[in-house]
Amino acid sequence: MSRLFMFEKPLGMRDTLPDLFNRKRMVRASIEREMERWGYQFIETPTLEYYETVGAASAILDQQLFKLLDQEGHTLVLRPDMTAPIARVAASRLLKNDLPIRLAYTANVFRAQQREGGRPAEFEQIGVECIGDYTVSADAEGLALIISSLQEAGLEDFQLSVGHIGFARTLFLEILGTEERVDALTRFLYEKNYVGYREHVKSLALSSIDKQRLLDFLALRGGEEIIEIAFSLLENDTGREDLLELQQLFEIMIDYGLEEKVKFDLTLVSHMSYYTGILFEVYAGNVGFPIASGGRYDLLLQKFGKTAGATGFAIRIDRLLEALKEEGANVPVYCILFSPERRKEAFQYAAEQRRAGKRVVLQDINGVKDIDQCTNQYDDITFLVGKAGRETGI
Length: 394
Hints:
The structure is a single chain. Helix 2 (about 20-35) crosses helix 5, helix 6 (about 165-175) packs across helix 7 and helix 7 runs antiparallel to helix 8 (about 195-205). The strands form three sheets. Strands 1-5-6-12-11-10-7-9-8 form a nine-stranded mixed beta sheet. A three-stranded antiparallel beta sheet has the order 2-4-3. The model is unreliable at about 390-394 (pLDDT under 50). It is about 40% helix and about 20% strand. By secondary structure, the chain is of the alpha/beta class.
């Protein structure tokens, strides 16, 4: 092994150093507390899942899955998301009555990246899943919870973009006629390649009226008034129920007092193929990617033998930290520098300070080569050096 390779990490993997780890821990804890206050219970699932079950249900591209074989020859995957594993658990062990279940998680997920991508192959998500509820109230609860969770983490400058994958696909299918043609057009939306979308529409063998309907679809981004404009694109009742769901969602968000955080974007689609209804993304500050996303996935549990409505969301911790200001993120660390004859006194004093909630480092003076460097490293230093009862000479 060469010395260069010795210090390299696998593609997309990252080390988390103490300062960043501490920020992640604090943000995670604040969000966990808020989710628990809303009645969500935390669970864990295995890091490894079967490829034939969770791997196939996850909607992550096959080439992005980390695969390996167990001793019996079964193909396993490192979990690529958390929605599919939680759907497996809910279907097999938890859905025993008619009451919705509210589950939460925090976990690392794994998705292989191309070398030129520059994106992490392992990242942490914190999220919730509400399973067993088909109502728009459940979708609105997810929006309200993600807003309050991000605010608890210290983020204020963010916006939710809300769409409806059912409306987009229904409208496209009515105009284009086949699922293949719908998939080809929605791919431009997922890539946010609106120039390519327009050129593709112009090349289609459609009437000028239908082409204009598809081009007008791109303008369906904005406030509540967008819903009325969307109704005008319909030629019959197809897609009407989807738009009525969005209207109801906005009315519920008004009751929460959170309507200012919600904007509609009916061009919003997702690479997660299991979404069936309302879906959303969260954008903040100068972060170029969504810091969170979620939506309704009523058909996913059927892959595990159950029928149940479900909705949820996941927050990317790394992107949330990028959006948060660093000021005030670090907790002060205090140092007690002691000599051997005052060691017991130092230990007792450190215990008192820790009980008071402070972060305290104990350091034997004989292990310090440079006092000035030690002083600069910590927020404050208490010297317990020399004989007890007299000041130090340092």
